[in-house]
Specification:
two-stranded antiparallel ribbon, 41% helix, 321 residues, 8-stranded parallel β-barrel
Length: 321
């Protein structure tokens, strides 16, 4: 079993207090003992992730700096490789580069960027990951693909980490998980989505999560033991009555809340309490639940949202090994 790692994050938007509070949030995450601080990648109300990590490379000293995750269609991989290795050098080897195919079509449309079909986005990401892997190692690359052509480009600067910064890829569907198993050092095991972009409630169960991990294991083959598995806890509620809280959550789901979840299955209280993506209970009960998730899935890298960072912090020392 891998040791646990813990990831926090922030967007630097007005709701969080703007750019100044964003830096303070990362510094607080470092003080709490989180291992990484991640910035998402959207064109809406948030800071630019790469510039933000450049600032955090100087404002923090220990915590690793991550993107969670970059939309591949926003940047050419040759340009991204240079930005990534620069951040790795400036941070003295603390970058974790998370990248995905991009999923919010509205942002691509507003920016006048080609979105493409799901198959096109996956094939484009496959090529981008190959290019990033080679250029971030400092190699000179020739590449002729469907989407990208590289002609004798040398990857510079050389990163602080060797052979390159770790690459993280997230996914919930079979094709994305297979692609992640092919390329990634870290895989974020996410829930699947409907055509409308809603999260499938059925995918939040421990049983479905085990199935996704098994799919990664099959696709990765001999690589599986080298891959670190991550997931993000969507909701943390510190309470002395887990069962009552789980029952309240089921009633809220039945009434259509939260609206971004598609209730495609009827769950039980036990389903809620064993879900990797929900954490209800005392600090000790939440810690034990996470140990059970690791036992059943091998997942060991836990992420939390900015609004949950304070609530989860007391759980970290309980899980340090």
């Amino acid at each position: 079993m891998r040791k646990f790692r813990f990831g926090a994050g922030g967007e630097g938007n007005k709701d969080e207090g703007g750019a100044r509070k964003f830096v303070a949030l990362a510094q607080t995450a470092e003080e709490y003992g989180y291992d990484t601080f991640a910035v998402p990648d959207h064109l809406g109300n948030q800071v630019g992730p790469l510039a933000a990590l450049g600032a955090l490379s100087q404002a923090t000293s220990r915590i690793r700096l991550a993107t969670s995750v970059l939309a591949n269609g926003f940047r050419h991989p040759a340009i991204l490789a240079k930005e990534a290795t620069t951040i790795d050098v400036l941070s003295k080897g603390r970058l974790e580069l998370g990248i995905g195919s991009g999923w919010m079509k509205e942002e691509f449309d507003k920016a006048g960027l080609e979105f493409g079909t799901p198959g096109e986005r996956i094939r484009r990401l496959d090529e981008a990951l190959t290019i990033l892997d080679r250029l971030m190692r400092g190699e000179t690359l020739d590449f002729a693909g469907e989407f990208y052509q590289i002609n004798g480009l040398e990857g510079t600067p050389r990163p602080r980490q060797g052979p390159r910064p770790p690459i993280a890829v997230g996914g919930g569907g079979p094709k994305m998980l297979a692609l992640a198993a092919k390329h990634a050092d870290i895989i974020s095991v996410a829930t699947g989505t409907t055509k409308e972009g809603k999260l499938r409630l059925s995918d939040m169960t421990i049983e479905k999560t085990v199935e996704r991990v098994d799919r990664i294991r099959e696709a990765a083959g001999d690589r599986f033991d080298q891959i670190e598995l991550n997931w993000t806890i969507a909701t943390i509620v510190v309470t002395d009555d887990r069962e009552a809280t789980a029952d309240m959550a089921l009633k809220a789901l039945a009434q259509g809340y939260p609206p971004n979840i598609a209730q495609d299955v009827e769950l039980t209280v036990e389903d809620i309490l064993s879900s990797p993506y929900l954490a209800f209970g005392s600090f000790e009960e939440i810690a034990e639940q996470i140990r059970e998730v690791r036992r059943r899935t091998t997942m060991s890298y836990i992420g939390v949202f900015p609004t949950q960072m304070d609530a989860f912090a007391p759980v970290i020392p309980l899980l340090r090994e």
